[in-house]
Specification:
Layout: H1 5-28, E1 46-54, E2 59-66, E3 71-75, H2 82-96, H3 104-113, H4 121-142, H5 146-149, E4 157-163, H6 167-175, E5 180-184, H7 189-200, E6 205-209, H8 218-228, E7 235-237, H9 245-254, E8 259-261, H10 267-276, E9 282-283, H11 292-305, E10 309-310, H12 319-331, E11 338-339, E12 352-353, E13 358-359, E14 362-364, E15 374-375, H13 377-380, H14 403-414
Parallel strand pairs: 4-5, 4-11, 5-6, 6-7, 7-8, 8-9, 9-10
Antiparallel strand pairs: 1-2, 2-3, 4-14, 12-15, 13-14
Helix pairs in contact: 2-4, 3-4, 6-7, 8-9, 10-11, 11-12
Length: 422
């Protein structure tokens, strides 16, 4: 085909511009040539999805294998629904195989939004697992930590908090340099908080998690919040059922205690009203349930615009999602603190290598490529997934609590001292 001089010059300039744009795109990526495992210009494809349930942890690990030999790890779960989430993860394999894992945002949208019916917490937990694994692969391919892909590191260490329900446990936590504790439950909560405050003094922040029972009314929760005002709590977590947003406003208007919620919601769409209506002071999405890092960074940005702090929930997940949360908190301005819980099963931290090292109430931000950890499969293999329980050898399942338990606790709650004269 003959070309005029003008068209030839136009075509040539476009070709050169395209080459330069491609080079700039490569140069713009934070490549560490000494650690990179793949050329960013080379093709990279997912070849296999491996699923590793760890019911002793109530969680699911995944491994995404690629044709370059790079393997990414991820994690996601809904406790009490492990077989269901395993099936949901398996359903993603047919889409993911053959795709470039360095495009997690694109794949997230394709899986979540292109379906006619949207999924809820089961789908987003499955998505979380593969999304975290794709970010891990991208970091390893470029030879940089995940926090570098999220905008760069803003802090070298991430503060953590632990759980304590007694004065003795609280003092043990304090002795390890941790400056925040959280207690749980609705059985005599004011007396529990008063005991903890007396034990640790004003040097340690205290929060209480009410776990959002469906039978705790906004009126009850508001009265409880007022009774807890003198103890200078960092927050009251999940005071009522998570879908009662108007109830959150009622509590907020009634008492001057910071509120926290969000662990049982997922994606920016699920967390949006809590943030936009400023119903909470602290948002708590779970990296292994909310949709992975692709959603967590968006939730953090939305919260920042409303001056809301971010404290990712990770108490009932394993350390892979925890590693992902550490990278996120390293890179966002509104990071508050990270939840840590090893009490369910002593082997929790040993399921990955290296496990996060705690010092002076914080964890060092990893500097290795990707997430900076790997699954200790030999250790995990010693605890086969036989049934969905919390602790190896335990008969305690995670089926919903009985009606009798709810009635018992509710009756006890209504007789609690903090209702007197309120």
């Amino acid at each position: 085909m003959s070309l005029s001089r003008r068209n030839w010059l136009k075509a040539t300039s476009l070709g050169v511009a395209g080459m330069l744009a491609g080079e700039r795109a490569v140069e713009a990526q934070p490549i560490n040539t000494s650690r990179a495992l793949a050329d960013p210009r080379a093709a990279l494809k997912i070849t296999k999805l491996e699923i590793i349930p760890v019911n002793s942890l109530r969680t699911i690990f995944v491994k995404l294998h690629t044709d370059a030999g790079i393997v990414g790890i991820g994690e996601g779960t809904v406790e009490g629904r492990i077989p269901t989430v395993v099936a949901a993860i398996k359903e993603l394999e047919s889409y993911l195989v053959g795709k470039d894992p360095r495009q997690p945002a694109h794949h997230w949208q394709a899986i979540y939004r292109h379906a006619f019916y949207r999924g809820d917490i089961v789908l987003t937990s499955a998505l979380s697992a593969v999304d975290i694994a794709m970010w891990d692969i991208k970091g390893k391919a470029l030879g940089v930590p995940v926090w570098n892909l999220l905008g760069g590191r803003m802090r070298d260490r991430v503060p953590i908090y632990s759980h304590a329900n007694t004065a003795q446990a609280a003092l043990a936590v304090k002795s390890h340099g941790i400056r925040m504790i959280k207690c749980g439950g609705v059985a005599d909560p004011v007396r529990k908080v008063a005991t903890l405050r007396e034990a640790v003094g004003d040097e340690v922040d205290i929060a209480i998690d009410l776990h959002g029972p469906p039978w705790l009314t906004p009126a009850d929760a508001a009265r409880l919040a007022r009774a807890l005002e003198p103890y200078n709590l960092l927050w009251i977590e999940d005071p009522i059922a998570p879908d009662n947003l108007d109830g959150y406003k009622r509590i907020r208007d009634a008492a001057h205690v910071p509120l926290a919620a969000g662990e049982r919601m997922a994606t920016i769409f699920g967390e949006r009203e809590l943030i936009e209506r400023e119903l909470v002071d602290v948002i708590q999405p779970d990296t292994g349930r909310a949709g992975g890092l692709t959603q967590m960074r968006k939730i953090a940005a939305m919260a920042e615009a409303h001056h809301i702090m971010m404290a990712p929930h990770s108490g009932s997940l394993g350390p892979v999602a925890e590693y992902a949360a550490i990278h996120l908190l390293a890179a966002i301005p509104n990071a508050l603190i990270l939840e840590r819980l090893d009490a369910d099963w002593p082997g929790r931290a040993r399921t990955v290598v290296p496990h996060p090292v705690q010092q002076d109430g914080s964890i060092a931000v990893p500097d290795a490529p990707g997430l900076g950890c790997d699954i200790d499969e030999d250790f995990v293999a010693r605890f086969p997934s036989e049934r969905n329980v919390a602790i190896p050898g335990s008969d305690r399942s995670y089926a919903p609590g009985t009606h009798q338990e709810h009635v018992y606790v509710q009756t006890r709650l209504r007789r609690a001292p903090y209702f007197n004269g309120r």
